[in-house]
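User: I'm new to structure prediction. If I give you an amino acid sequence, what do you actually give back? Let's try with this one:
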Amino acid sequence: MKRFVFMILICVSLVGLTDKVSAQGEAAVPFLLLSPDSRAGGMGESGGALADNSSAIFWNPAGIAFLSGTEASITHSNWLPQFNLDLFYDYLTFRHYLEDLGGSVTASITYMNYGEFVRTDENSPEPIGTFRSYDVAVTGGYATKIHADWGLGLNFRLIHSRLADQPTAQEQGEGVATSVSFDLGMMWRPSAFEIPFIGDIGNKFSAGFNLSNLGPKIYYIDQAQADPIPTQFRLAFATRIFEDEYNSLTYTLDFSKLLVDKGEAFRGDTDDDTQSTEERAEFYESVFTAWGDEPFSEELRDIVTSMGLEYWYGVPEDFMFALRGGYFYEDPSYGNRKFITLGAGLRYDIYGFDFSYLITDVFDGGENHPLSGTLRFTLQIGWGSLLTPTTNGFPRGI
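Assistant: Good question. You get back a string of structure tokens that encode the predicted 3D arrangement of the chain. For your 398 residues, that looks like this:
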């Protein structure tokens, strides 16, 4: 099982590489934190305030409240290419506006494949079989306007993790776990917003927050060994810097923090069967306690910053192309992910294509970083308003 254990360590590295124990390593099913789409992936993995396509299901479901029509997309990426392993994920999204409901229904499927493994006996290296490992999350949601300038989005998610189909050593349970979570997002896109010395930036600015993966702990063996899922808070801003008939330039800025109570996470690892049901059930407490389990200066360092620029040229009703760039920063003590992203996109009629590329080589030791060279590809198709300028939001690149 050595190779299996090695793979689990790789899975943990999906969201953080550090020599200090941090919240990333304390949360289970880290695939829920992966930036799933190519567009935001090319903008430094920032998209919580732009959120104007079906991938907003991940970034901020409230952004879909400002959209109409129907859209579907699929993203594929070979993950951690430096390891040359059979790691990949797929992300499928769908949204549809229903006038009778006054909003859009949404759905997505996230699938992370960890490949096939050889099973060996604990006392012998001889193979005795094979098994496949994967994680999958199925999400359904609803987004609507609660005011002309305000959007609300809600998601409910079923999570299934299958790391192994049989227990290891003397453990009684299997490496299979199932749990649920939900998301809550808000978006503000003012039609008029006067700023002193700058002027009115209405329809050129948006701000939003998304509280994602709020749910009970997940366990593979028993509840006494349960781990928290990666609840995350995201605060985001986006603004249209420049726009004319054929050109536009948009800036995005996201701040995100894992809301995993470190002390609670360690208590969840204990073998003490006397852990109370009440303690396990009150998973929502980490939303508040995770902000104060360390000194304030350390809490600030635990916040991940990502930003990006997106340039579009063309006519929304015809052909458009985009160029993107971004930067992602995580404190060395809390994951140490630092990379630059590049991306591009095309829109023609109801079809769209995006790709993004992740670069770590510009940083010390980056050439051997497991995220280096990560590529994402996204195909999308939309009906209705996919390429039609909106009256309140970001029309280009939808």
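You can read the tokens as a compact description of the fold. Here is one thing that stands out. The longest strand covers residues 127-147.
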